[in-house]
Amino acid sequence: MYLKHKQCIIFLYLKQEGSPMKYISTRNKEKIVSVSEAIIQGLADDGGLYTPQTLDQKVDLASTLKMSYLELAQYILSLFLSDFSHKQIQQCVQNAYQNSFENNEVAPLCKYNDGWLVELWHGPTSAFKDVALTLLPHLLTAAYQNQNENDLISILTATSGDTGKAAINGFADVKNTAITVLYPEIGVSDIQKRQMQTSLGKNVEVIAVKGNFDDCQRIVKDAMKDPVVLEACKHMKLSSANSINIGRLIPQIVYYFDSYAKLVNHGDIQLGDVVNFVVPSGNFGNILAGYLAKQLGLPIKKLVCASNSNNVLTDFIRTGTYNANRTFIPTISPSMDILVSSNLERLLFLLSNHNDVLINQYMASLKNDGHYTISDDLRQRLQESFAAYDCSEDECKKVIHDTFHKEHILIDPHTAVAVHACHAYKQESNDNTPCIVLSTASAYKFAKDVYTALTGNSCKDEFEAMNALHDYTSIAIPKNLACLKDMEIRFTNTVKKEDALATIAKRLEGLQHDHN
After folding, report:
1. pLDDT class for 150, splitting at 50, 70, 90?
2. Which of 101, 151, 232, 385 is at 20 to 30 A from 418, Cα to Cα?
3. d(CA 243, CA 132)
4. How do residues 214-225 score in pLDDT, each as one tens digit?
5. What does pTM read for this prediction?
């Protein structure tokens, strides 16, 4: 609980009753580790994802109404970081969020016609990934202290656009760390690519892969157990900043509670009223954080999963069959151009009451055959909490156009997919429950497509489009994007996907040599 007195905030860190929260692998529930171990490892050595062993604790909703975002983050994290001290949690949160976000507001709420937008893109790289990835390096450093580790830790990350730059920004020049980012050569916006290519930091490497995000994600997972890669880093730790790392997932729970508290404090709902959240989804981490919030007691009726033309998640939630054997479609919402959604494994593990045998069967089927079908009982449990809708490219452009011209709110294509899903859900279900849409990126990260959607005109490149979009809307360009054109391009390396593991091994050998 928190007590406020003038400018002083006294956080009373109360140890939760019962045993400290432990974490288990989705593919072997007998593999039990501390949260520090889970954060350091990232991916379990059996290929599974670390997941809380229990979710019995409940958040005191009434107390959250009086908390700032930083206070709320400390409270939520204290439920999960059982081997972190109060001081460690407090320092991690303060170091991550103080002075890192515009106006020091991490997740501002904005009213629009069908509900509310929670704007998660006011951080240092203009994407929602900043909320977790400004914090993860501090969590990792504290976890290292808890485990008495001092080896170099090498962060290996796949990105569909936004994770890469946010991870680089968080880990650049952090002591005892190095970060390597893999992104699809074709399939990220020009601005996203330039953000990564111009990254600063002596411990940073960025590599383009001739493939899509699913290829990059598979390479990262394979690297975690590849003998050549492991030999190259035998005297260092290998981890990930993707949402396969539980340390990425936990901080995202906070803005669900924060949004709810704001609606109560503004008088839009009463404490205890249910709400819906609509989440643009690719790798399923963001929406899974919402499910964890629900398990902690947040009154969520439905989590609406919004997909673009790569609608594998929509089909799965509606039918119970996950089928990645389909044409990959590059879209104007590239961070959602994903056919294998890693965090779905965690959800199925939770819904099946930790049935690791079943999860192994599903994941083996996905790897070998490209598809699996869950039981009718599991599908019913899934549909109790989740609904799903997808959005065509034309529908996405229309939402961008109409949202600005009717309400003077500028949204990016990923947010537009979610706004479309929100409207579709309301129409189909006749559910008038208040809806909160997660707005995940600045429109200026996708300026060409947004400008064309608004005006019907085109620009030769993203930088011309940013200026044209600013002139047309009078909405400010984020400073971190406005300066990109004049920054030096540092990273131009491109590899074939079949050569990626060897490239990673060589990178790790170099890091090991330099560290020694």
Report:
1. confident
2. 101
3. 9
4. 999 999 999 999
5. 0.94
Going by their DSSP bridges, the two strands 321-323 and 371-373 should be labelled as antiparallel
How many CB atoms are located within 10 Å of the residue 300 CB? Answer: 20
pLDDT surpassing 70 at residue 98: yes
Query: Which amino acid is located at 293 in the chain?
Result: A
pLDDT in tens, 281-318: 999 999 999 999 999 999 999 999 999 999 999 999 99
Tokens of 146: 């808890």
Please tell me the distance from the alpha carbon of residue 153 to that of residue 179, in angstroms, as a whole number: 9
- Pairing mode of beta strands 435-439, 115-119: parallel
Q: Which residues are catalytic?
A: 129
419: nearest Cα among 67, 117, 58, 109 = 117
Q: Average pLDDT in the 110-114 region?
A: 94
Secondary structure (DSSP) of 289-344 = HHHHHHHTT--EEEEEEEE-S--HHHHHHHHSEEE--S-----S-GGG--SS-TTH
Going by C-alpha positions, the residue among 138, 148, 142, 151 that lies closest to residue 508 is: 151
Neighbours of 30 (CB within 10 A): 7
Helices 393-407, 413-429: axis angle to 10 degrees equals 90
Q: Give the ranges where 102-234 is alpha helix by DSSP (H).
A: 129-133, 136-146, 162-171, 190-197, 213-223, 227-232
Distance CA 374, CA 367 (A): 15
Cβ 205 vs Cβ 183: under 8 Å: no
Q: Enter the DSSP assignment of 444.
A: G
**Do residues 157 and 164 make contact, with C-beta atoms less than 8 angstroms apart?**
yes
> How confident is the model over 376-391, as a mean pLDDT?
98
Judge whether 401 and 453 are in contact, CB under 8 Å. yes
Residue 462 DSSP class: H
Give the separation between CA 505 and CA 229, rounded to whole angstroms. Answer: 5
First-to-last CA distance in the chain?
45
Q: Is the Cβ–Cβ distance between 127 and 167 less than 8 Å?
A: no
Q: Are strands 2-5 and 8-11 parallel, antiparallel or unpaired?
A: antiparallel
- C-alpha distances (whole Å) from 477 to each of 122, 158, 466, 487 are 11, 27, 7, 16
Q: Are 166 and 196 in contact (CB under 8 A)?
A: no
**Dihedral in degrees, nearest 10, Cα atoms 108, 111, 116, 118:** -20
Task: Please list, in sequence order, all residues whose beta carbon lies within 8 angstroms of the beta carbon of residue 81, skipping any fewer than 6 positions away.
Answer: 35, 88, 89, 139, 250
Q: Which value, in Å, is the radius of gyration of the alpha carbons in the chain?
A: 21
**Greatest pairwise CA separation for the chain in angstroms:** 63
Please tell me the distance from the alpha carbon of residue 57 to that of residue 433, in angstroms, as a whole number: 26
Phi, psi for residue 198 in degrees, rounded to 5: -100, 10
Tokens of 105: 């507001």
- Rounded to the nearest 10°, the torsion over CA 186, 192, 194, 195 is -140
